[in-house]
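Exercise (ungraded).
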Amino acid sequence: MKKLKVIVIFLLTISTIFTTGCWNYREVESLSIVAGVGIDKSERQKYHLTFDLVDMTGGGTSSGSESANPATTTIETDGRTIFEAIRNATKECGKRLYFSDCKVIVISSELAKEGISPIVDFFSRDAEIRRNIRIFVAKEQTAKELFKTKPVANTIVGYEIETMIEADQKYLSKNVPRRLFEVNNIIKSDGISLTVPIVKRSAANPETTQIGGTAIFKKDKLVGYVDNDETQYIYIIKDEAKAGSLVLDKKINGNSITLELYSSKTWIKPVISNGEIKMEINVTAKAALAENETNKDYCSEDGIAKVQKLGEETIKNHCSRIIKTVQEQYGSDIFGFGLLVKYRYKSAWDELKANWDEKFKTVKYDINAKINITNSATLKSKTKVGD
Amino acid sequence: MSNTDNVLKTSLDENINLFNSIFKDDETLIIRYVENRRNPKIRMCFLYIDGMVDNKIINQDMIKPVEEYAYDFMPNGILDKTAKSVVTSGSVNRTNNMEEILESLLYGSTILIADGENEALILETKGWKTRSIVEPESEKVLRGPREGFVESIMMNISMVRRRIKTPDLKFNFLTLGTRTKTKVCICYLESLVNKNVLDELNRRLNSFEIDGVLDANYISEMISDAPYSPVKTIGSTEKPDVVAAKLLEGRVAMFVDGTPMVLTCPCLFIENFQSDEDYYINYYFSSIGRFIRISAFFISIMTPAIYVAVTTFHQEFLPTKLLLSISAARQGVPFPTVFETMLLLAVFEILREAGARMPQSIGQTLSIVGVLVLGQAAVEAKIVSAPIIIVVAITGLTGIMVPRIKGLDIIVRFGLLVVVSIAGLYGFLFAMLGLLIHLYNLNSFGVPILDGMRLGPQNNKDTFMRAPWWHMKNRPQGLTSNIKRESVGKIK
């Protein structure tokens, strides 16, 4: 009896080994680590993929224990589907491509205009891809060209794009990373449209890449772009901005004042009255006086109040301008107003849903901004110029 | 010795012949024939083994008085008289039991036989050289008593006796080893000892026969609860203060003659992580030490296995930068990671074993060979990768932090490594569960060895941490018949 028990336990244990997930023995060095994938349209077949690989050989100069900085190298493949193209990559490099440390997917604008849902489907389905991989659109160049640029602060282009977008959200908030799972969620839900950050070659230094602007989607198709500086206000409205700088619109004697935003919180309340949809947008921001080019000292209580007021106006103006632009030019609800209506007016939404795209263009909005200046950095007064 | 001729006769010459025949070809037996000066009819003979006795005692306190004492002639009372008023020995025993006589003779006593008596006197004259008391190498402390046991059982007993001065402390002697006749002493505090443990120990000690007992481990292995398990169920220490502390918790100690190790039982698993110094320094600091030792054990058994599992099965676990640096280091290394790890762990064990056995003068050579040749050169020659060196270094370092379970540590480490190379972290989990189940199954003299770690505030005051003395109101469970520490925390 006891023997039987032992045998049963043994068999159960062994059988679980063969029925659990996928795993296998593979040495680290047998993997070709992919840092980023670029997806372009191919002329002959549907997809042209560019893989940004981490080159472990160190350019053949690595000697002994000192591990040379891994360099970046690319391989390109064609395929009728993405999966086929990835498998075709084995022909290019002997090792198996390894995607768990792939950080970015760059989709060319040409493909994005045709719809990104097939691409999103593949990457969401694949087991090795992480769900937080960042998605980008290549606006001016092809994705392939972008991966052939020279990285600046990193040695691998894919990882540099990743650090750029993370830093952007943290310190600038002009662009916010859009992750694979978010893209997936936004595409499938109604009442909100997708925005994806853009990567392009740097204007000043064409050898390198930069992040610039936001691509606006309708459903899963690219419809347009928003210029770099205005994107900040998109993310303020979407409550995704974390920090950033705010240059006041109003110049004093031709000189500017800049605030540093510490945090910004946006709360939108949709109101439907008489068939008219109105968004009450409340922005609350904490800021510091970061730069004062004027010859006036704003460190008094009145001065601070004045700067706060100017800042509030700036936010108000830009926010309404960007909403207006999006409404008129693209008619794509990137702010997720529809979603807010859906949550608050469930029954009304059922009617609005059908032609929300048209309705969105007529949505009224009322923006309230509140800036609280907590300090003037390390200066108590204005830097004086002596007589 | 079952020979019926082996009995003492009344004739001195016959008896001398008897001893001579027993100790044939053994020239260490010394037979000293004595005649009383005043009464030459009184003839006696001292027998002793050279080197086992204190010659000064024999010369001055035995032979001289016997030669010079003014005996009346009384053929049947010579030994009686000698025992009572002539020799100045602390312990005098009169017997005709030949077996006892021979045993005492071989253990340093002097035998006195007299003409006309068929009995003998056993005189206590032990006096061999022993090692002096030094600090034990294996259990060094920075603070606390430095005395360590020596090879003489009586000296060891005296060291414990000096620490616990109560008649409650009992010592029972028995002899083990059919040939070595090694003295073993069981020691306990009667009011604290768990009678079941004591009975079980006595039963086990009487249940086996062995040729010789040269070290405490001979006995430890014979009476262990789980003889095939690498986990020890009997504790051992070289320090009298540790033995005293264990006795005070109700444990039983076993002194074995000829070895500086004293066995204690029952032995809980947590005892492997307890150091006597924990109790001699501030409790905050010793709690940290305890915690580090326990973590060190787990780090030591797990690190190589987890490294292999993560780098060969679950690369997704690694942060990108770590993956890149490991991958870069692995480029061009010819062996699989598992083999590489095993190789270097084996090298470490070789170095450790070599270090433990070598004379001190070649210590420097060993470190140069170990560090430079094996470490640096192997990495530079791309025979092993650099991260493996770090893994093995951590493993080795943490492994020697808990020397008491060194054996278990090495076995489990290699076991895990083998399992992990087949089934990754999944196998690792199963192996660890297996280890835990095994530990939960083990008993030491009826006490589960993980008993010290059951949940509850009183039970864990001396396990993962060391509480201040006034809080430790209970003795560890299961070890003692008297769990309350009556006098702890009482303020006079």
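Further reading is listed at the end of the chapter. For now, observe: The CA atoms of residues 260 and 306 of chain A lie 16 Å apart. Chain A has two domains: 29-226, 229-381.
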